[in-house]
Amino acid sequence: MSIFLSLFLKLSTFSLIAFGGVNALLPSLLNLSVYQEHWIDLQTFADYFAIAQAAPGPNFMTVTLIGWHVYGVLGGADCNYCYFMALLYLGVSLAASYPKNER
Questions:
Q1: What is the 3-state secondary structure (H, E, C) of the chain?
Q2: CA-based nearest residue to 16, from 87, 93, 78, 92
Q3: Which residues are CB-contacts of 8 (< 8 A; sequence separation ≥ 6)?
């Protein structure tokens, strides 16, 4: 499996269980990116987390920086896309299946 596809599939599943934001997933993200896949080392992970915490806005930037490190700009865009789209598809499909209020 290519690295690009691996990034997409593994991080898409994270978005479906990310209740509480990315900080709730940090141990799993650390385990995946440092110890299982060896995409980055522990110091780089800590640096990316510090950058994400220092930057304004939502702190999912850690995921984006890991994707950028692994596959460049396309990897960063892939991680952003998969982080939002998996949950968006789930929400839209649930909303479409919800019975409409008819009067």
A1: CCHHHHHHHHHHHHHHCCCCCHHHHHHHHHHHHHHHCCCCCHHHHHHHHHHHHHCCCCCCHHHHHHHHHHHHHHHHHHHHHHHHHHHHHHHHHHHHHCCCCCC
A2: 87
A3: 78, 81, 82
- How many Cβ atoms sit within 10 Å of the Cβ of residue 57? 7
Q: Do 79 and 67 meet the contact criterion of CB atoms below 8 Å apart?
A: yes
Question: Closest Cα partner for 21 from 51, 64, 56, 59?
Answer: 59
User: What average pLDDT does this structure show over 96-101?
Assistant: 80
pLDDT at 82 over 90: no
Quote the tokens at residue 76.
Answer: 């960063």
Whether the per-residue pLDDT at 103 is higher than 70: the answer is no
* pLDDT the model gives residue 102: 61
Percentage of residues in the chain with pLDDT exceeding 90? 32
